[in-house]
């Protein structure tokens, strides 16, 4: 089993989720985060004092998947999240042990 | 000269208060509208109201009052459309202390015993709120500079025109053609159903059509980002509306009291009417529904506040609340993006109030044995107002479209109009954010100092 | 007939303003209470106040004024409990313009020189806020429909009853048995210590006992979700209270001025009193404490505002602030869930104000050489009000419990009453949320259109 | 004795309203300032305003009015600095009902026909807001206890002194040396440009220098945490300012109306002025700029509201808005931390208004052919006010520094003054947080009950 | 060493934390997130327009533990977080290298 | 490749970010979280009722790095984030597969 994590642009969440459902992923966990990278932030001005906002809003998605599906899931995400502009984000996978579904105590692939 | 002009301090006190109350309505509207937008555009929404205060406040004392209440611009005696802008230019002849025999310019005042300058202040606040009302239909997508220019042009040509027609002795007043159609029947617009609400509602519709939909309209959720702000706006609007309606009595008397009570009970009833529709249709009575019902009731009772009984006002309110609750869904059906329902609330509510006077007016209404006359007159006046406001707004809107342009870029709209137009974001509520870089870095507090040197 | 009835425009202006100010108090209360709840129930909390405006607004003009100020329902001359609901049904005889000789119905007005309809408006706002006050004790757990029904029943039976008894010439007025116990001493309730605050406080306690505790009360933290909203509510309440207290003078005169100053200094002192207790007991002077002290002071000075000197008002305020600060902890000790401290603030504050008049009244108070009489009368009147309100509220509350039921389901309460009762959530502050699906998907903007066709 | 003292109910009504409006300004200021701080210090910011109401409210009726409007403390006839604190101690001689021949104490009233106690209430609110204004310069870092002590000391020595000098017949009044410098020219301060704004602005500057900068000033971002709150504050301030300025006419007459209109148009123009500077300098017209421009305009028109024409007021407003927009950047250049720009807005705005009267006053101004006299007098009066306020504030501030100390500890400031001084945090907006432990655990609801037993 | 991550219902946080403390876990890191899965969201209505809120609030807990404790910790969480209704969440473990305590620079098990 | 995760005190974010940039890290993803551990929370009082806030605000930083840089990056963070007082936080590393840059589809070290 793998944990695929994706950091994407916020307004792409809907498309990514739709693409994952279409692919057959049943669930995911989403959180707000901020990203720093090549993409430049914007400037705000309050009473003449300028602030540069360097951290840009991103959405972080975590998906537990069967090991063999990991590459496909990554591809699905990458395709759905791409705008082609700087700041589109990253996707990566980590090996996982011992997934459990809290409700039933099921383990492994059944837990997904 | 032999006329005795005596100051009426009690009435003057009430008008001073009323003017203050009506001025508060525009910030109230800013919160009512601002809470309904997404959090990325609340500042822009509020700025449209505040900007209206800025522009109209200046314009009104220069030529606004004069265009509203001056003699007909195109010749004495004609039932004109605009007043002469130069007659009271810069409030000439209305200021206190210029004429020793009449230190309060009472002879030039529209209201007996009340200094002319007080009436100017009171009237000014109506012009301000009317323009601000329009902004709800075009939320989240309009250049601030274009809005400011529109504000000045629209208030001058459309608002002052309609104010002149209805209140300044023009086309739609008791002296105009509709006023003389039936014996003893004059068009009734107690506090601005046509001049303010139908007018703003039509202008909102026209602009929404000219400017087009928000990106994602009908697909993405665009739910209110802060309903406590909406409730605050509704509360301040109600409070301020006492100045609007009861102040329009022009004196602290029984008529003001009647308008006060009618305003309250119609609004209470409209809230209930809106909530009943919601409960039946959607299964839930919502707080946004309550706030919207409040405003719908206030709008509908505006033209009628002095002409109905309290029981009549309850019926008017119930009907207005229910109809507006149904009307706000029209935009999805018909596909125009009247973002915060200026049409559904102000145009529909204003029409309900204006027309139902023909049925409910205690002196001339159909249900009170007054015949069909009042109803006919009310409908005709409403139609003229719709056409006048619609055509002129269309012209102004189109001219601005081809010159300055109305819309911000698509990217700016998606990123959020607050940041892209105003360089600000409304909230930074995380107490740990400051100084952590999460919210930014003080880049350049002192960079621009050359400008001040 | 030979009586000269002349309009007093200055006094009328002040009453119109006062009525507007008191109406603003109910939205103010909605924010004061709303900020104190958890963020999952702020909308429901505000809706209880707005709902009260809706129901009472309509009820008042139909039978409310008449039940409060009409002739005794059970026979002329008896010191009755309710006024006759049909005497002024639908404001019959109080409207302006119906009698040519008395165009403002001044002969039927409770206040000299002020049109009857203005007094109706002023009194209506008191009924509204009293019902709304009760909602604080039963936050987060009550069906909105049951609340609305309670509102109508309670205001009719309990509030109009007590108003009649105290202000309408009934049992607790100067003409009643307590008014004639001592020579020259009448019960003093300047602006509603018994009718409004003791009444609402007792009703809040009874409902809290009938309805039971919030899930998690005493275990889970239930801290205020937005203290800026609480402060806003406190500010608007204070502002509105000037109409409540100084308006109760019934004229723009020195008594109104005295009530105004007493209201301000007692409230300032009560804020200090509350903060001192907090500082000593908890180590911190809090902003919630300041806001609460403000309200405690306003409550306590309400019955006393016209009868004390400013220095006496300072003492009254200090005592009230300190005692209420101590009283709000009682609920944890005694185990009832008076969620937002209606008992601790309104019942205790109302009692402090009502009783201390017996000591501090400059004309009849014990400390000013007036003997024990005023104190005895004040205590007796308070006790009667407590019993009357307690018993009737118990009956109404129990009937509603077995018929409609008071509480939402346990699951609905845990998920949050805003979403489950009103289908809304108050805040969506993340600017990136909209259109990201994080806050939802526009499922069905147009589904229900059939309903409007 | 033979003087006829008649109550003027209309004027009294207007003053009662005005007093209420000005009182509302202080909560309004709490929101205006509170929204500009970081979210970890909004409660402390608001508490500084509320605390000022508490302390000054009590102090004013004891000795404040007397020190402001009593006879010169150091001998009759001298152009003194403070009034005698014991002359009207506890409002002795000003209360209604003490003298049968003059039931409203009209003979002791500052305003014709208005009960003395009403004038006391009106004046009290000015003292409150002035102290509260100062707090903006020392946001986020000051012990609440020291602030409360400062409040009492400063209002007594500095505010009451300047009020006496300008309005109480003292040094800076028409009877003082500056009043008699030129024939027919008296210093003009209609509603408090020197007493309120220059005074508070100077005090704010002195305290900012004594107390030192916030940790991270000039390095970390300290952006406003809630701009809707700032806009709310600006809206309430504007509304309340009608009482401040138009109420200062002392009657419901044409002068009040002129002050009302001038207040509105100057403020509208100042908003535009500020936004133009921002647009040119920073590229964006911001909502914080609009709110700040509003306040700058209100400040600048305060001393001038009765002396200018509306067109003159427009120019005054434009200039004030633009100059204040430039002035708020000075603190970064000069390195003092006037956190919320009390200097940039109130000192600069107050000076602009006070001095430009010398140019724009319709009767005596340079541009209206009145010669240089008014201008000279205005500048001199402003200088005296600056020196008086500066020196005394310095002394009070330094004494407090070496005794109680001004600042919270560095750790407390970094963690956040709300939690460390008040034991509270302003917001808990996540609806899932309550009962999840994320926001806390109810540790000890009942622990302290011994204290109440 | 392992990193155990749990996604649970928000109102279960108190119980889970108590159970972990009882078991001997000394620390944890908690964040807000939203979950998508079998559990159905709710509907909100604004002026007649319906919105379906699909992402439901969840709490995400991360706990660094000795490798041998991982299974027990997972069991403790699963027991404490279970309500038996859909949406109770998931727990999983990931292998970790190099844990460091910032304050002291301690590494490995001592860093916990 | 490794994923380095750091949980630090919020006001240290600026310094940590600066140190990482100086070291050569190009990007990172930041999120808000709350921590529970040896550090004690504070107490709040509302109308006399005391609440103990046990979860303290922390910032969570995730950085994808080349495997050989992981130890150095950890050191950089630990040095920059240290105050020496309890509650400074933890840093750890997890093995990662398959990093992809969404914009370009680049994989592995090129994706950083
Ligand atoms: N080394 C990294 N570790 C973790 N997250 C990163 C890293 N580099 C970039 N990110 C995340 O990816 C987002 C996009 O990266 P950026 O460099 O701006 O654009 P792009 O991925 O298109 O080259 C960043 O905002 C950040 O959230
Ligand atoms: N494949 C997955 N990857 C990551 N998180 C998941 C996944 N499936 C479910 N979740 C998380 O677990 C939560 C509960 O899942 P759900 O399917 O609704 O119920 P249950 O776990 O009881 O079957 C979801 O809200 C989501 O946060
Ligand atoms: N076992 C753990 N698993 C995950 N995070 C932890 C663990 N222990 C501590 N933390 C995180 O590290 C932070 C600091 O830990 P704490 O014990 O308070 O201080 P220190 O690390 O200085 O000993 C905690 O607030 C929490 O976010």
Automatic annotation (TrEMBL), chains A, E, F:
Gene3D superfamilies: 3.30.70.120. It comes from the Bacteria. SMART domains: P-II. PROSITE patterns: PII_GLNB_DOM, PII_GLNB_UMP. InterPro entries: N-reg_PII, N-reg_PII-like_a/b, N-reg_PII/ATP_PRibTrfase_C, N-reg_PII_urydylation_site. One of its GO terms (molecular function) is enzyme regulator activity. The keyword Protein biosynthesis does not apply. The keyword Glycosyltransferase does not apply. GO terms for biological process: regulation of nitrogen utilization. Homotrimer. This is Nitrogen regulatory protein P-II. It comes from Nakamurella leprariae.
